[in-house]
Backbone:
């Protein structure tokens, strides 16, 4: 029966599927504002190093857990640890985290829907650049539209999950990702040519080491895990579909590098526009929603048709990228409810809609009417994001690396990494990778985890 489990078609299919999960709002929306809030180029340097030295080994560890156990993320630990109670319990975190992320992810999805609708009515192209970037402030702080758009976005997501038209969405995302890639390049080219944009390029290229604080490390690591969909069972699950012949170093490396590249391109598309528009780089979650409309409005003055089309396609591509990611987040909770409690799929989807919709409304309102509600100095939205990205993801990722580095026998890990010794390059690299998984990654994650509480 286990052999009937589906497998990915080949190397490219694996990389595309994993990159599809990885590339989402994390790259386009979250990365640029993290850079802006945490010191510009210094953050980027830490982010790149953390991705290659720590996230990539964690990614490999998760793929190995999945491929070895050949099952879903909750049962993977149980199976490989021979039903050890601690590891059986750990699997539950992989259900909780994606559900919590879905709550606030869909708020941003809702913003994209609103911006898409606005682009279709040619609003940004008609506004002056200043108005276009100021639009965000009045929109996000209003009461009804952000809430309604969040529920619309979540509603579509849940409907798709209920209908199970997953394969359609997968095919769709294969088109939308390349489209998004091209559009980012178009916007990047235009954005760096704006007057005053040079400051933004410099901001990304010249690290000011004085800006480097323990916070920078903590947030860079959190961002890197978030962006690669680590620490929540997604990659474990995908790993279980990877065939035994695949070289996991190539596929994981390919995914990590394309995710990195995408984030950096988004940074170069957005930061120059931020500076050209005179927006504060540390403006927070609204950053791209303030800077990108500015670009469209500027473009619109000279090239109204082109900029309208680019704006519409751009927000559509963001919606699709966000949708393909959030579908897999919601699916985790749904499949759990269906399998564990025998609930019907439709009912499970409704439960998820109520949970994520409810908490999401609080997150959406925390930019407006609930902006004054602060818990530990953070708004509700920031708190959700912080707890997930800087605490829970790190805990779950730590558990995965401890599992591979310390619980699984070294021989099993070696066997997984080298496909039974048949890959000479991996064979040679194994001691380095094993050292990173066993020592470097866990120690780094533990240190960062504690700095989070001592900020
Ligand atoms: N990595 C996705 C992004 O960058 C978001 C995400 C986090 C995700 N964890 C996930 C997507 C798990 C799918 C599954 O936007």
Residues:
């Amino acid at each position: 029966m286990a052999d009937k489990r589906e497998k990915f078609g080949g190397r490219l299919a694996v990389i595309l599927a994993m990159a599809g999960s990885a590339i989402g709002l994390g790259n386009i929306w979250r990365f640029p504002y993290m850079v802006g809030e945490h010191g510009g180029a210094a953050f980027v340097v830490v982010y790149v190093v953390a991705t290659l030295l720590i996230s990539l080994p964690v990614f490999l560890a998760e793929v190995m857990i999945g491929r070895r156990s050949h099952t879903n993320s909750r049962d993977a630990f149980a199976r490989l640890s021979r039903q050890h109670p601690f590891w059986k319990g750990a699997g539950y975190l992989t259900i909780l985290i994606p559900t919590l992320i879905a709550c606030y992810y869909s708020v941003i999805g809702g913003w994209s829907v609103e911006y898409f609708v606005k682009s279709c009515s040619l609003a940004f192209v008609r506004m002056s650049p200043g108005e276009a970037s100021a639009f965000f402030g009045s929109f996000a702080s209003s009461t009804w539209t952000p809430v309604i758009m969040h529920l619309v976005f979540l509603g579509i997501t849940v409907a798709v999950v209920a209908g199970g038209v997953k394969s359609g969405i997968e095919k769709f995302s294969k088109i939308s990702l390349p489209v998004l890639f091209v559009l980012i390049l178009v916007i990047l080219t235009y954005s760096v040519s704006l007057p005053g944009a040079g400051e933004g390029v410099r901001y990304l290229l010249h690290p000011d080491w004085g800006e480097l604080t323990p916070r920078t490390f903590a947030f860079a690591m959190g961002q890197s895990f978030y962006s690669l969909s680590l620490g929540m069972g997604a990659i474990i699950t995908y790993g279980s579909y990877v065939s035994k012949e695949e070289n996991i170093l190539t596929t994981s490396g390919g995914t990590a590098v394309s995710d990195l590249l995408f984030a950096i391109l988004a940074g170069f598309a957005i930061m120059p526009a931020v500076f050209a528009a005179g927006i504060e780089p540390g403006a927070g979650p609204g950053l791209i929603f303030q800077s990108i409309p500015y670009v469209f409005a500027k473009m619109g003055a000279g090239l109204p048709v082109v900029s309208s089309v680019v704006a519409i396609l751009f927000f559509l591509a963001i919606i699709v990228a966000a949708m393909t990611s959030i579908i897999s987040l919601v699916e985790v909770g749904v499949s759990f409810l269906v399998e564990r409690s025998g609930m019907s799929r439709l009912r499970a989807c409704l439960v998820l809609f109520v949970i994520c919709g409810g908490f999401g409304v609080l997150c959406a309102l925390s930019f407006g009417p609930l902006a004054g509600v602060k818990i530990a100095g953070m708004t509700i939205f920031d708190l959700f994001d912080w707890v997930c990205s800087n605490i829970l993801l790190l805990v779950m990722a730590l558990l995965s690396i401890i599992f591979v580095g310390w619980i699984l026998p070294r021989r099993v890990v070696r066997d997984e990494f080298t496909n039974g010794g048949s890959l000479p390059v991996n064979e040679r690299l194994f001691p380095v990778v094993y050292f990173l998984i066993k020592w470097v990654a866990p120690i780094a994650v533990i240190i960062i985890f504690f700095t989070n509480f001592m900020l």
User: Anything to note?
Assistant: The first helix runs from residue 11 to 22. Residues 2-454 form a domain with the Hydantoin permease fold (CATH 1.10.4160.10).
